[in-house]
Amino acid sequence: MAGNAGFAGWIVAMQSSLSIRQSADVPEREGALMLRRDCAPSACFPTGAWRPLLVPAFLLWALLPVASAAADPTAAGGLPVREVSVFKDGHAFVVHRGTVAVDAAGAAVLRHLPAPVLGTFWAGANDEGVAVAAVTASRNPVVVERTALTLKELIDANPGAKLLVTEIPPASRDPIPYEATLLAAPVQTSAELEALAPPGEGAKLPVASDLVFLATDEGTRVIPLSRIQDVTFLGANPAPATTLGRAEFRNTLTLRMVRRGAAAEPLTAGEADVGLMYVQRGLRWIPSYRIELDGKGQARVILQATLVNDLIDLDDVTCNLVVGVPTFALKGSADPIGLEQTAARLAQAIDLGNGRFGNSFSNAMMSQVAGGGAAVAPGPEAEGGESAGEKTEDLFVFALAHLSLKKGERMVVPVSTTTLPYRDFFKLEIPFVPPTDLIQRMDPRQGAELARLMAAPKAVHTIRLSNTAKAPLTTGPALVMRDGRVLAQGMLSYTSPGAEADLAVTTAVDIRVTKEDRETKRTPNAQNWNGEQLARVDLEGSIGLVNLRGKPVDIEVVRNCLGNVTEAGQGGRVEMLNVLEDLTLLGDGGGPSGMPWVGWFNWPPWWRQFNGVGRIRWDLRLEPGQKAELGYQWHSYGR
């Protein structure tokens, strides 16, 4: 990308303001190069002269490593990235290491300035007897080599060159070329400008003159650049320089290097092996699975990773894909070393709404503790790693060697392959229905959604994977295939070693399901709640199943009931759920699986006092053509 942009800029500049060709006007000067202002392409670029110059100019631009260093943080002026540990939430632990030049004052300047999470930036030296005494982030003038694209830049890049200069003549007069030697133009240095400026204004960039100094036989001729019509560089060797250094402001890191010991003397000029490490957002990985079923109880589970790099160029690095939930207490706060926040904004950002971090930060850095607030269960993302990875505490890591990925690029890479046993079974889950007085409050959209959810229940063909590997399966999309054909795509949840994971395949149309519920008794004024009389309604229901598949099937049936389950036949296991603590069951959490409508209502306070949520489970095996009838009873209270 950088090369294309530079090449396009080169052409635009030459077509708009500067023309370059081998001079046909000075045939006695072999190999002369002529630069003209305001020249039409047809006049300045004859067919025979344009091609020999265009290709060398492009190749010269492409072969300038110093010029491209500004766009590549891992090139000269920065430390190469050696290793990254990538988390699924978009954070990455980045490790830089390399040899840097140290000046006479013991300073090593790096041009790559990260934006790390607060408290995660660390720097150090890898040489014995050498230490990093301090790291300073600042905005400083830096000289960057660039390709000369204008007449002014080419003149500045070639002091001492022999020229044939043609000035713009007065009206109705012919130009008179003359030979001259190009002299360096005066420049106001940064030190001079800082001395002239009021105190505290900071560093200044040098200011170059727009005058051109020429040594002629008569003396030194000084003319403004605007007076020059064209110049011809005389002689074939050496060729005119096409690069020059320009000062510009860059954010830099300055490492103050000292010798270890009581005196901590500055390291003299030379080189030092140093490293940086930090956590920064911008690099993530997304897992995905392909599960190939053989139809005989064995599944080939293939994990691949999609890498999304919006952080930094990676060139031949070790990339660790981390499975687990990292704890970065201040991941929303940038470290001030990144020059992205003032101290006042930083203190405000890390307050986290409870004042504890803010008060402690003004005195000293407190120990690593979680921010105050409601505790949240880790859920399915509290996960480990895969069969080929390594475990570190609660995290699992897959190491990918020799990975290269530019910033802005994406990559899909295979990670691991393992074979796990599985079994087919069928799962039927029937949700409970909201009470009549709540149904009457629904708008038409909600009523249509509820009707869809409460349509004739269907059994779902499901595979149950047994994780016999040494590492867990991570959460991610899974493509289920058999005999080269796609069966379904589902979401594989975290599965610890030794545990099982269910993955839905498709609706089982050859398992016929019927459901019937009926009221058996109604008792008015059965309960009193703050003067409000509540009636008790007793109900019974049945679920009918028929196996039409032509072979035995295992079926797991779950029936959810809004109320208090009193009896379940055919070996059903009854479980009353905790509606006093689990807010998803009756209200605030959006509803349990398959019942999102639970969160649509403002449930009366007496519901949790007199009614519960019951769950009945049956595990059945049906032979071909076999029928089953599952009965149950429950009651609930209402107005």
What is shown here, in short?
The chain is mainly β. It is built from 10 helices and 33 strands. Strands 17, 18, 22, 23, 24, 25, 26, 29, 31 and 32 form a 10-stranded mixed beta sheet that branches.
Question: Would you write up a description of this structure?
Answer:
The protein is mainly beta and 639 residues long. It is 12% helix and 46% strand. The strands form 6 sheets. Strands 17, 18, 22, 23, 24, 25, 26, 29, 31 and 32 form a 10-stranded mixed β-sheet that branches. The two termini are 70 Å apart. The model is unreliable at 1-76, 341-388 and 586-592 (pLDDT under 50).
Name the beta content range.
over 45%
Rg: 38 Å
Uncertain spans, ≥5 residues at pLDDT below 50?
Answer: 1-76, 341-388, 586-592
Largest pleated sheet: 10 strands, mixed
End-to-end CA span: 70 Å
Anisotropy-based shape: elongated
